[in-house]
Structure formats: structure tokens, C-alpha cells
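> forwarded from #structure-qc
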């Protein structure tokens, strides 16, 4: 079993994960918006991919 994180690190990890979820929801909302420009969609897809790569990294500690 992994060592527990210090309380401050646990809170930081929680808020970082929450922020990622908020960002994912906003990027998806923008991508699915029928009025969004192709450039806007491409930009949002880029950042959505970056978040996915970050949380998929084995070194990512939520």
C-alpha cells in the first residue's frame, strides 16, 4: 500500500483533479457547440488531449 500523502498534498491533489474535471467539461461543451469555429474546436481538442495525457501518465498523483 502506498504511503499516505501529507494533508496539504492531499488537498492540493484533490483541487488539481477537480480543476482537470472542470476544464474537461468546459472543453467538451465548447467542442460540441455547433456555433464554435473550427479553430476554436481544434484549440479545445488540443488542450483536452493535453489533460488526458497528463492524467494518463503513470507518475500523475491525483
Amino acid at each position: 500500500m502506498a504511503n499516505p500523502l501529507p494533508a496539504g498534498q492531499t488537498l492540493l491533489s484533490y483541487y488539481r483533479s477537480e480543476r482537470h474535471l472542470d476544464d474537461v467539461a468546459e472543453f467538451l461543451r465548447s467542442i460540441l457547440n455547433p456555433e464554435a469555429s473550427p479553430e476554436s474546436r481544434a484549440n479545445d481538442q488540443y488542450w483536452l488531449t493535453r489533460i488526458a495525457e497528463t492524467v494518463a501518465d503513470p507518475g500523475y498523483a491525483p
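QC bot note: The chain has a mean pLDDT of 89. The chain has two helices and no strands.
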